[in-house]
Amino acid sequence: MAFAVEEINRNSTLLPGVKLGYHILDSCDRYPWSLQSDYPIPLLIGDGSSTSSIILSHILSSVSVPILLLHLNRVNVTTPQGDMFYFQGSDIPAKYDLVNWQMNSKGQLNLILIGRVDGFDLQINESAIQWSSGSKQVPFSVCSEICPPGTWKVPRKGEPLCCFDCVPCAKGEISNKAGSLHCERCPAEFWSNFDQTACIPRQLDFLSFNETLGITLTTAAVSGAVVTTAVFVVFLYYRQTPMVRANNSELSFLLLLSLKLCFLCSLVFIGRPSVWSCRFQQAAFGISFVLCISCLLVKTLVVLAVFRSAQPGAGRLMKWFGPGIQRGSVFLFTSIQVIICTLWLSLSPPVPERDVGLEGSKVTLMCVMASVLGFSLVLGYIGLLACTCLLLAFLARKLPDNFNEAKLITFSMLIFCAVWVTFVPAYASSPGKYVVAVEIFAILASSYGLLLCIFTPKCFIILWRPERNTKKHVMGR
Predict the structure, then answer these.
(1) CB–CB of 217/270 below 8 Å?
(2) Residue 18's pLDDT is what?
(3) In principle, which of 11, 228, 278, 450 could form an S-S bond with 367, CB 3.0–4.6 Å?
(4) Is the pTM of this model over 0.90?
């Protein structure tokens, strides 16, 4: 035995990192001498006498030290405390039936037999072992059942290690085997399944034409474009009447065209974002609204110029502010926005990105503003024109006329400014795809406000009060 232990210790491949040791005492066939050992030991090898080994096993069972029995002349195993007996030898007569042992243990089957009987392997038929409960099933000596997949073990304070609670994994975390000590977090673009046992790819989420919100916004945008087209047809049919001619028909047609573009540009924001859609939607939005506000601004300037030219010595004012200058002014105001959008989209355009910051089983695909400055310039220029138009229209609202368009422009621009002032904080605080929905809502709300405030009174007179569609009634004083 000493030689075997030393050989094992010399060979680092047999028990890596482990060194075996031993301590040998001679009992001299005296039972009391067998008990004279003060060394803490993990295993005891009995002496030549089985009687001494059995006496030692009863004593050492209280401290859970197993003993290896070298020789047994008689086998009678009764282990009320779950003693562990190890034996080997060839002097056990084959006539002993080693299969029909009755175990009185209160714990598991911790009896291990090693050896040979009459040259044959010694085997135990575990199915023939009957426990004190009357069952042949091995009883569980544990406090808690093993934790299933999808949960992890949390030890109970002040209780043995076998006592623990099974806590479900948090959302986005999994455990795919029983008895896990912790849960593993899923990668960024994956999420846990319903049972928290596997990571599955997240679904792409964006404002689509198929969902309820997308259908609602699409219907509102198409309806606005249809109504604008209907108003355009009415104005075109009645273009020779005083009501249409008195309100600068050319700018009215251009305003209706720009409003239709405003309604239609909102559709570009719906659907799966792409490189070109992210660029085109902001350019279409910025240019369409500047064209619209430019028409209203020039209309307001025309109203002021008309009444200013009626004063003595100002007759040439309208000659300098004729149709050509009006068209040129609209073109100039719109060109500035085109330049801003071109520079923005050329240097740092919006790009589609996946937002995985939100907790959940979906990844939001959205257009991200690479340059906040570019978007701010687009909105700021629209706001500058809108505020200028509102101020001029407010100054011209009380000029003498039965049908002063400045009153309508004032009210419409108040609605326009209120919508876009509310839009900024709502846009900054909205999560995921609802950022797009907020911008579409602002586009539609302001477009409907301009369309209804400016053209509803005119269409009402043209279609339902034709007797008021006369030069005398329109001009008034």
Answers:
(1) yes
(2) 83
(3) 278
(4) no
